[in-house]
Design brief:
This protein has 350 residues and is an alpha+beta fold. The chain is built from seven helices and 18 strands. It folds into three domains: 1-195, CD59; 199-289, CD59, CATH 2.10.60.10; 297-349, no CATH class.
């Protein structure tokens, strides 16, 4: 407790005098020893290694930050990123006291950064990847209005398709996670472009966003014209099995529907169930989940046989994706974090 006070006090003192933090670490490629002078309120020099294991690893964030304690930013916690965080409060202290875990030679090297599209430009710093099979990736997130921040990441990650677009539209609003993967030293050197919504694709889906005022009640559902690659109707519900609440309806890309829960968590609220179906207007509550009267069962079988079941959209079964909750929220600060294997990267700040 005393130590915590001391750190806080030190943080305040240093803030007043303009803490100097390295913007990169000596072992990062392209590091030219630039230093930034912290703005008012930025009280820590920080090295963070953010990940969504195993899809994205080693997204490095280095510099000065305003923090209450040595943890992730609320923006990162909100999208359930995990991470290791090293913080210290004296000038250039991350350069002196944070040492990289020796990574065996021959590991892939990728650009690594976290921030805005302008900050993560084509000349971002590079870092070696933890796994020899890793590819380089770049990822951008665009969220629905009212949710926390857009952000871009360059990092390492496991093998996967060269491009994935997990996109959904709710009313006039678009949200997506766009991932591009490549193979080769620092090949994730692209800039980030906004993903366009596209042209009408002939499908219709219901759309609503529940704010507590009953927007997703059946009577009030509005049909929307689906655009671009988003040709699946979507319904997102709470995981409460007996009384699931519909949080939103809209339309989505197939990548979102078959996606990993892992990437979906960067886009959708924690602990939700995602239902996708491919027939026009199939994301109507009654079409998917109303309990069926027993008498109708033979008819149901008949419908199933001819592939006309409204939820199945021509024989294509609906897909459920479970978006998982956080792995271990708030436990990655250097004193308490559980990722012991990474501890060798951290030397204490004395
Ligand atoms: C950081 O450390 C490296 C080597 O240990 C040194 O060459 C570099 O000048 C230092 N950078 C700063 C900003 O002190
Ligand atoms: C990006 O990386 C590729 C592959 O490593 C390289 O051929 C290309 O020249 C790079 N582009 C820029 C702008 O650095």
């Amino acid at each position: 407790m005393l130590a915590l006070h001391a750190v806080t006090l030190l943080g305040l003192l240093v803030t007043a005098s303009g803490l100097q933090c390295p913007k990169c670490l000596p072992w990062q490629g392209n590091c030219r020893d630039e230093v930034e002078t912290c703005r008012l309120g930025q009280n820590f020099c920080v090295v963070q290694d953010l990940y969504v294991n195993p899809v994205m690893t080693s997204a490095m964030c280095v510099g000065g930050m305003a923090l209450h304690s040595c943890g992730l930013l609320s923006r990162d916690v909100a999208v359930r990123l995990s991470g290791n965080s090293f913080c210290c409060t004296t000038d250039l202290c991350t350069n002196k006291s944070y040492a990289s875990m020796p990574i065996p030679p021959g590991r892939p090297v990728c650009q690594s950064c976290v921030g805005s599209a302008t900050a993560c430009g084509p000349n971002s710093l590079t870092s070696p990847c933890p796994n020899s099979q890793d590819l380089c990736l770049q990822l951008s997130r665009h969220v629905l209005p009212g949710e926390e921040g857009d952000a871009v990441y360059k990092a390492c990650g496991e093998q996967g398709p060269p491009e994935e677009l997990l996109a959904m539209a709710v009313g006039p609003d678009l949200a997506y996670v766009h991932v591009q993967r490549c193979h080769g030293v620092g090949c994730n050197n692209g800039s980030f472009v906004k993903v366009p919504r596209g042209k009408p694709n002939g499908k219709l889906c219901y759309s609503c966003q529940e704010t507590g005022a009953g927007e997703c009640n059946n009577e009030q559902l509005r049909p929307m014209t689906c655009m671009g690659a988003m040709d699946q109707c979507l319904e997102v519900q709470t995981t409460d099995w007996y009384h699931p609440v519909t949080l939103l309806r809209g339309y989505a890309s197939t990548d979102l529907c078959r996606s990993w829960e892992l990437l979906g968590r960067l886009l959708l609220p924690a602990d939700t169930l995602v239902h996708c179906c491919s027939g026009s207007l199939c994301n109507h509550a009654a079409s998917c989940r109303d309990p069926l009267p027993l008498l109708l069962l033979p008819l149901v079988f008949l419908l199933l046989l001819v592939g006309a079941w409204s939820c199945a959209g021509g024989g294509n079964p609906g897909i459920r994706v479970h978006v998982q909750g956080p792995e271990d929220p708030g436990s990655w600060d250097m004193h308490t974090h559980k990722h012991r294997t990474k501890l060798s990267r951290i030397h204490t700040d004395t």
